Amino acid sequence: MLKINRALAGTVEINNISPKILDTLFEIFPQADRGSILIRESSDDPLIPVAQKHRDVSNDETVRLSRTVLERVLQEKSGILSADAASDSRFSASESISSLTIHSMMCVPMLDFSDEPFGVINLDTQNPMKRFTDDDLQLLLAVASQAANSYENARLLVTSMEKEKQDKEM
Predict the structure, then answer these.
(1) Is residue 83 within 8 Å of residue 127, measured between CB atoms?
(2) Which DSSP symbol is given to 84?
(3) What is the value of pTM for the model shown?
(4) Cα dihedral 115, 34, 15, 11 sign
Protein backbone atom coordinates (compact mmCIF):
# COMPACT_ATOMS: atom_id res chain seq x y z
CA MET A 1 0.00 0.00 0.00
CA LEU A 2 2.89 2.30 0.77
CA LYS A 3 4.28 1.76 -2.74
CA ILE A 4 0.93 2.66 -4.29
CA ASN A 5 0.58 5.75 -2.09
CA ARG A 6 4.05 6.91 -3.12
CA ALA A 7 3.41 6.19 -6.79
CA LEU A 8 0.14 8.14 -6.80
CA ALA A 9 1.23 11.00 -4.54
CA GLY A 10 0.74 14.28 -6.33
CA THR A 11 -0.68 12.67 -9.49
CA VAL A 12 -3.50 14.87 -10.75
CA GLU A 13 -3.45 13.94 -14.44
CA ILE A 14 -6.07 11.21 -14.94
CA ASN A 15 -4.07 9.70 -17.84
CA ASN A 16 -1.00 9.23 -15.62
CA ILE A 17 -2.73 7.32 -12.82
CA SER A 18 -3.31 3.94 -14.54
CA PRO A 19 0.24 3.33 -15.84
CA LYS A 20 1.67 4.16 -12.41
CA ILE A 21 -0.73 1.72 -10.76
CA LEU A 22 0.19 -1.13 -13.12
CA ASP A 23 3.92 -0.48 -12.78
CA THR A 24 3.61 -0.66 -9.01
CA LEU A 25 1.38 -3.76 -9.13
CA PHE A 26 3.99 -5.58 -11.18
CA GLU A 27 6.52 -4.80 -8.44
CA ILE A 28 4.15 -6.00 -5.71
CA PHE A 29 3.02 -9.15 -7.57
CA PRO A 30 6.03 -10.81 -9.23
CA GLN A 31 3.80 -13.66 -10.43
CA ALA A 32 1.69 -11.32 -12.60
CA ASP A 33 2.28 -11.72 -16.35
CA ARG A 34 -0.42 -9.36 -17.61
CA GLY A 35 -2.40 -6.53 -16.14
CA SER A 36 -5.03 -4.10 -17.27
CA ILE A 37 -7.22 -1.31 -15.99
CA LEU A 38 -10.59 -0.58 -17.57
CA ILE A 39 -12.75 2.44 -16.81
CA ARG A 40 -16.08 3.84 -17.95
CA GLU A 41 -17.16 7.47 -17.88
CA SER A 42 -20.74 6.78 -16.81
CA SER A 43 -22.73 3.75 -15.72
CA ASP A 44 -24.23 3.42 -19.22
CA ASP A 45 -20.87 3.43 -21.01
CA PRO A 46 -18.84 0.30 -21.76
CA LEU A 47 -15.55 -0.35 -19.98
CA ILE A 48 -12.59 0.97 -21.96
CA PRO A 49 -8.98 -0.14 -21.41
CA VAL A 50 -6.96 2.83 -20.15
CA ALA A 51 -3.76 0.92 -19.33
CA GLN A 52 -2.28 -2.48 -20.10
CA LYS A 53 1.01 -4.07 -19.19
CA HIS A 54 2.87 -7.28 -19.99
CA ARG A 55 5.80 -8.56 -17.98
CA ASP A 56 7.31 -9.80 -21.25
CA VAL A 57 7.94 -6.48 -23.02
CA SER A 58 8.30 -8.23 -26.39
CA ASN A 59 4.63 -9.27 -26.12
CA ASP A 60 2.67 -6.39 -27.59
CA GLU A 61 -0.71 -8.09 -27.96
CA THR A 62 -3.56 -6.41 -26.17
CA VAL A 63 -4.76 -7.85 -22.90
CA ARG A 64 -8.14 -9.49 -23.42
CA LEU A 65 -10.55 -10.13 -20.58
CA SER A 66 -13.48 -12.44 -20.07
CA ARG A 67 -16.83 -10.67 -20.26
CA THR A 68 -18.13 -13.22 -17.73
CA VAL A 69 -15.54 -12.15 -15.17
CA LEU A 70 -16.07 -8.42 -15.82
CA GLU A 71 -19.84 -8.65 -15.47
CA ARG A 72 -19.58 -10.66 -12.25
CA VAL A 73 -17.12 -8.19 -10.66
CA LEU A 74 -19.27 -5.19 -11.62
CA GLN A 75 -22.56 -6.75 -10.51
CA GLU A 76 -21.29 -8.11 -7.20
CA LYS A 77 -18.96 -5.15 -6.51
CA SER A 78 -16.40 -7.61 -5.17
CA GLY A 79 -13.15 -9.13 -6.31
CA ILE A 80 -12.69 -12.49 -7.97
CA LEU A 81 -9.74 -14.78 -7.38
CA SER A 82 -9.22 -17.96 -9.34
CA ALA A 83 -6.21 -20.18 -8.72
CA ASP A 84 -6.92 -22.11 -11.92
CA ALA A 85 -9.27 -20.11 -14.12
CA ALA A 86 -9.38 -22.67 -16.94
CA SER A 87 -10.94 -25.32 -14.68
CA ASP A 88 -12.92 -22.96 -12.42
CA SER A 89 -16.61 -24.00 -12.47
CA ARG A 90 -17.68 -20.35 -12.11
CA PHE A 91 -16.33 -19.68 -15.62
CA SER A 92 -17.17 -22.97 -17.33
CA ALA A 93 -19.33 -21.19 -19.92
CA SER A 94 -16.59 -18.69 -20.74
CA GLU A 95 -14.69 -19.61 -23.89
CA SER A 96 -12.27 -16.70 -23.46
CA ILE A 97 -10.85 -18.03 -20.18
CA SER A 98 -9.54 -21.17 -21.82
CA SER A 99 -8.51 -19.49 -25.07
CA LEU A 100 -6.49 -16.85 -23.22
CA THR A 101 -4.40 -19.48 -21.37
CA ILE A 102 -5.10 -17.81 -18.05
CA HIS A 103 -4.10 -19.96 -15.10
CA SER A 104 -4.47 -17.74 -12.07
CA MET A 105 -6.24 -14.40 -12.12
CA MET A 106 -7.62 -11.62 -9.95
CA CYS A 107 -10.12 -8.99 -10.98
CA VAL A 108 -11.38 -6.29 -8.62
CA PRO A 109 -13.75 -3.32 -8.99
CA MET A 110 -12.91 0.32 -8.48
CA LEU A 111 -15.81 1.98 -6.68
CA ASP A 112 -16.67 5.68 -6.75
CA PHE A 113 -17.71 7.77 -3.75
CA SER A 114 -21.29 6.49 -4.05
CA ASP A 115 -20.05 2.87 -3.97
CA GLU A 116 -20.79 2.25 -7.66
CA PRO A 117 -18.21 0.50 -9.86
CA PHE A 118 -16.62 2.66 -12.58
CA GLY A 119 -13.69 0.43 -13.43
CA VAL A 120 -11.75 -2.75 -12.80
CA ILE A 121 -8.17 -3.83 -12.24
CA ASN A 122 -7.23 -7.24 -13.61
CA LEU A 123 -4.03 -9.26 -13.11
CA ASP A 124 -3.34 -12.73 -14.42
CA THR A 125 -0.55 -15.23 -14.82
CA GLN A 126 -0.02 -17.78 -17.54
CA ASN A 127 2.39 -19.87 -15.48
CA PRO A 128 0.56 -22.70 -13.67
CA MET A 129 3.25 -22.73 -10.96
CA LYS A 130 2.59 -19.10 -9.98
CA ARG A 131 -0.75 -18.55 -8.33
CA PHE A 132 -2.45 -15.67 -6.59
CA THR A 133 -3.65 -16.16 -3.01
CA ASP A 134 -6.47 -14.77 -0.87
CA ASP A 135 -3.95 -12.37 0.69
CA ASP A 136 -3.05 -11.16 -2.81
CA LEU A 137 -6.73 -10.52 -3.54
CA GLN A 138 -7.15 -8.53 -0.31
CA LEU A 139 -4.11 -6.43 -1.19
CA LEU A 140 -5.40 -5.81 -4.71
CA LEU A 141 -8.79 -4.76 -3.30
CA ALA A 142 -7.01 -2.23 -1.08
CA VAL A 143 -4.99 -0.98 -4.05
CA ALA A 144 -8.19 -0.64 -6.12
CA SER A 145 -9.73 1.44 -3.35
CA GLN A 146 -6.71 3.75 -3.30
CA ALA A 147 -6.72 3.93 -7.10
CA ALA A 148 -10.42 4.76 -7.15
CA ASN A 149 -9.83 7.58 -4.67
CA SER A 150 -7.06 8.96 -6.89
CA TYR A 151 -9.33 8.88 -9.94
CA GLU A 152 -12.19 10.52 -8.09
CA ASN A 153 -9.92 13.22 -6.67
CA ALA A 154 -8.46 13.91 -10.13
CA ARG A 155 -11.97 14.14 -11.60
CA LEU A 156 -13.07 16.52 -8.86
CA LEU A 157 -10.01 18.68 -9.47
CA VAL A 158 -10.73 18.85 -13.20
CA THR A 159 -14.37 19.77 -12.51
CA SER A 160 -13.30 22.42 -10.03
CA MET A 161 -10.79 23.91 -12.46
CA GLU A 162 -13.41 24.00 -15.24
CA LYS A 163 -15.88 25.73 -12.96
CA GLU A 164 -13.25 28.23 -11.88
CA LYS A 165 -12.44 28.95 -15.54
CA GLN A 166 -16.13 29.49 -16.32
CA ASP A 167 -16.48 31.82 -13.32
CA LYS A 168 -13.54 33.91 -14.53
CA GLU A 169 -14.97 34.11 -18.04
CA MET A 170 -18.31 35.30 -16.68
Answers:
(1) no
(2) S
(3) 0.79
(4) positive
